[in-house]
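Summarise what follows for lecture notes:
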Amino acid sequence: MGSIEEKRAALYQKLKQLRSLSHSSAVHKTSIIVDAAKYIEELKEKVERLHEDAASSREHTSLPMQVTVETLDKGFRINVFSEKDCPGLLVSILEAFEELGLDLRDANVSCSDKFHLEAIGEVVKRAVLKAIKNWTDNDNED
């Protein structure tokens, strides 16, 4: 009889631990298991998004640009720099800003032998990276 009681106690402890790990407030075994399954699915989705973000970051790091974003009190400062001249990149970036409905408060641009853009406003790094990717794709087609 002691063996059955030990098994029950072990099962109870495992269910208690599962309930805690899955942030469940359920009382019944079945509900705890269902909550845990839902929690596992949420974790799988988070892992998928992280993998997608990592893959996206790897794509963008292969671009011939350096992009930095700093948070300001009311918006962001974004810097885009390339060692080479990038005809059409400024237009591509400004189109991406417009597409996202972002307003620039101030911008400094140099497009001589190198490309440098410093923009201050409500800017999102992803928009700039998308613009650079679009520009790179278009540049490779030419």
Observations:
- The chain has four helices and four strands.
- The chain has a mean pLDDT of 78.
- The longest helix spans residues 29-61.
